[in-house]
Amino acid sequence: MDLSYRIAVRYFFSRNKRSFISVIARIAMAGVAVGTMAMVVVLSVFNGMEDLNRKIFKTFDADIKVTPTEGKRFKVDNSFLEKVKSVEGVKLVTQVVEDNALAQYGNQQIIIRLKGVDSTFERQGQLDTAVIEGSLQLYGKGGTPYGIIAEGVRNALSISLDDIITPLQLMYPKTGTKTLNLTSAEAFNHLSLRPGGIFFIETRYDDYVIAPITLVEGLMDYKGERSSLEVQIKPGFSEGKVSKAIAEKIGSRFVVRDRDSLNSDLLRAIRLEKLFVAITLSFIILVAAINIFFSLSMLAIEKKKDVSMLYALGATPGLIRRIFLTEGAIVALSGAIFGLGAGIALCLLQLKYGLVSMGMATSLVDAYPVKLIWEDILYTGIIVVIITMLVSYIPARRAAEAGQILPT
After folding, report:
1. Tens of pLDDT along 287-296?
2. How far apart are alpha carbons 195 and 192 in whole angstroms?
3. What pTM does this model have?
4. Residue 234 carries which DSSP code?
5. Residue 241: Cβ within 10 Å count
6. What is the pLDDT of residues 38-71, one digit of tens each?
7. Which residue from 23, 89, 139, 394 has the highest number of Cβ atoms inside 10 Å of its Cβ?
8. What is the β-pairing status of strands 225-226 and 188-199?
């Protein structure tokens, strides 16, 4: 065992329990432990929020989305579809026509986001877990067209799936309506649907109505054009790699983005917030570790005679510095290990029992999501080590210098 470590351990365990230095050391340990635990828990919550958002996106957003570089629509024919389908990893390609529209049910009206999809939509299975009433069928018996409606639209219009008489009316301005009176019904194309299913994901998707593309295409006068293609990939394939392959296949006239790219702003905001919170908590740990500085400074004063004797026995200034650096490391690492253990335990308990609720009736999850990433725990440990070295170096250097000038 290294001599500096043996002496530091002896100093740590042989202190008088009533010593003020011992009290400060314990305060330092507790401060580092609490700061470390807080960092582990908070970073895990941010990881959980990022993971939760990805799950939410996956429920509604496509794995890959193809849109035109310019304009809102583009022509789609069979050869273009086959070109996209021929890319390795592509499972389904859904044609989409999407735009804002006016919805009316009874005497109530709201602006909704109308999304027309083809028959492959029913095979995607993305919304299966989000359906709270009805089904995802686009056509019923006898070819009756159905609309799949978000919970927010249902609440705003007071839609009842049991009412088979009142239709959901969708309206979209006719081409050239700039010269028409928009308050007149003649200024709009009309489409009637029967509400067939209600889904709920979260509020950002609460204004959607999904309907058969053939009807929506006629309503919006798209005439064979599409606003986007939604691509579902096969299991085991990377969204990023498949999106790049599709982009190379179809050329620069189209923008091809995977799900993370579609939601990059929100994911980037979560990561930036996580970074700034980690920096803030690092400063809190630094403030807590200042107690190590005071503890070592007073220990150096108390042990001046011991240090002088070690010099007389042939100790070098480097050995004295290592003794006090090791002493600081023992105090800080003891607190850090306890803090890491407590933080990990709290996260595991939250995962299993959901101790802390989000307190939101409209949330998809009852409790705060957490996700332990071992890289975060490693970085937390590295931060504690760096802070320990910073606050321990000056007292260790002063102890080495004071021992040299003290008469023996």
Report:
1. 888 888 888 8
2. 10
3. 0.79
4. P
5. 14
6. 999 999 999 999 998 888 889 999 999 999 999 8
7. 89
8. unpaired
